[in-house]
Amino acid sequence: MADRRNPQEPLGPLRARDSQDPGDKLMAAAFDELYTDSPHSPASPADWAKLEPMVARVSGRRRRRHLLRELAATVRPRWLATVATAAACLIAGAWLGLRATAVPPRLALEAKDGSSRAIALSNGASVELTGEAEVDQVEPSRTRIALRTGLVRVAVPHLPVGNTLMVLTEGAEVVVHGTRFTVEAEKSASTRVSVAEGLVEVRPLGGARPVVFLRPGESVTIPSFAAYFAELSTRASEVVAATRCDDESTLRAYVVSAPVGVDVSAALYLEGFCAVQRGDSATAVARFETVVRTTTELTRADNALARLAQLAEGSGADSAAKAWRRYLDRFPQGLHRSMAQAFFAPRPGAAR
């Protein structure tokens, strides 16, 4: 085929002239140099020998770039995924750092003057505190938050079987397994618990107070034991003063709730008296015996022993005699000495 090109036009690679690729530009420069030396004649073997090393360098560079592109195509998705994961972790960590601070196994927390502090617990629960509290996570399966005063909001994920989270105040302990709730404690006053999700068990501390279960939307206020017992003592005193048997539940709650050292013999004596009225001799004997053992009031002990002797008369002469001798041994000049003497006095036709 005839060569229709202009014999005056250089035989340089036209595509290479317009390309921005460094290799193409090098090839174009090589051809320009070659044909500048011999613009009107075919290239000689010496000219091609001059061109060969340039072409080899260009070819090598292109091969390396090709291999790098192939490698990048294989590695990039994995590399990008790794970088994306790391970036997400860093961003999430920074975000959580703004919202909550991870706490060690034991930590005292404080947030006053209306401020709040957010913490992340090891079991996945989040806590927002305004006030004073202590966190104990030493046992992995048992987390305790002792709220001294203030308010704490807790969001607890579903915990594994056997794991618990408990909020303690002066008046109650709140036990959860997975829920959102709020506990507010006033120093030496009361504990208020409100539930947003799940089920919460509220156990009043001190006394014979029943456990309370709260569901979403429900709340309860639990007085501290000191406040509870003070109010209970007042009610029990009113019942005793009126010698009433229509509110024995108050008497029983007062007796079982009383701290060690508190004399509850007045309530015990009235419980025994009320048991006699309804014919419950076993309960009456148990209450009067407790009065005799524990009371610091000699008059109350005198009356209780006399009541025991009277009850013993229903069990036979021997039991009654034993009970009255016990009374006289304790109170030889007691209030009921005449009753004891009358029991032992000779009776016509009766042998003693």
For this entry, give a set of tags.
rod-shaped, twelve-stranded mixed β-sheet, alpha+beta, Serine Threonine Protein Phosphatase 5, Tetratricopeptide repeat, disordered N terminus, Jelly Rolls, 3 domains, 22% strand, 352 residues
Q: What's this model, at a glance?
A:
The chain has helices at residues 14-18, 22-37, 45-99, 225-241, 248-257, 265-277, 281-294, 298-312, 317-330, 337-344; strands at 101-102, 106-111, 117-120, 126-139, 142-155, 164-168, 172-176, 180-185, 190-197, 200-204, 212-214, 219-223. It is rod-shaped, with a radius of gyration of 48 Å. The longest helix has 55 residues, at 45-99.
Can you walk me through this structure?
The protein has ten helices and twelve strands. It is rod-shaped and about 155 Å long. It is α+β, with helices and mostly antiparallel strands and 352 residues long. The chain folds into three domains: 14-79; 101-223, Jelly Rolls (Sandwich), CATH 2.60.120.1440; 227-344, Tetratricopeptide repeat domain (Serine Threonine Protein Phosphatase 5, Tetratricopeptide repeat). Mean pLDDT is 80; it is low at 1-17, 37-41 and 82-100.
Helix-strand category: alpha+beta
In total, how many beta strands?
Answer: 12
Distance between the termini: 160 Å
Tell me the major beta sheet: 12 strands, mixed
Give the CATH level 1 class of the largest domain.
Mainly Beta
Please work out how many helical segments DSSP would assign.
Answer: 10
Q: Fraction of residues in helices?
A: 40-55%
Return the domain count: 3
Query: What name does CATH use for the topology of the largest domain?
Result: Jelly Rolls
In N-to-C order, the SSE pattern is: HHHEEEEEEEEEEEEHHHHHHH
**Mean pLDDT over the residues:** 80
> If classified by CATH, what would the architecture of the largest domain be?
Sandwich
Q: Which runs of at least 5 residues are low in confidence (pLDDT < 50)? A: 1-17, 37-41, 82-100
